[in-house]
Amino acid sequence: MIKLSYYIEKYREHLLELIEEGDVVIELGCHVGGTTKLIADKCEVIAVDNSPEAVGEMEKLDVTFIPGDVRRHE
């Protein structure tokens, strides 16, 4: 299923409706983890971002963080 959300509040609402316990979510462009914090209790999260601000914030969460540019295909 594909749902498009242009507003962060709707995006987060849709995520919480769709994610089930035990799911694995790959979050591309997590930045400082505003959405990551909401879903990390419900599922396993693999978060990817290349911003320096993301590193410290992702270390505070129980997620797998990959520092990198999601636009690169390496």
Multimeric organization: single chain
Strand order of the largest sheet: 1-2-3
Gyration radius, rounded: 12 Å
Return the structural class.
alpha/beta
Mean pLDDT, nearest integer?
91
Alpha-carbon distance between the two ends: 27 Å
- Which geometry do the CA atoms define? globular
Number of strands: 3
Run of helices and strands: HEHEHE
Major beta sheet, specifics? 3 strands, parallel
Helix content: 25-40%
Q: How big a fraction of the residues is strand?
A: 15-25%
Number of helices: 3
Low-confidence stretches: none
Question: Topology, pairings included?
Answer:
Elements: H1 8-18, E1 24-28, H2 34-39, E2 44-49, H3 52-59, E3 64-67
Parallel strand pairs: 1-2, 2-3
Briefly characterize the structure:
By secondary structure, this protein is α/β, with parallel strands linked by helices. The chain has helices spanning 8-18, 34-39, 52-59, and strands at 24-28, 44-49, 64-67. It has 3 helices and 3 strands.
Architecture overview:
- With 74 residues, the protein is an alpha/beta fold.
- The protein is built from 3 helices and 3 strands, in the order αβαβαβ.
- A 3-stranded parallel beta sheet has the order 1-2-3, covered by helices on one side.
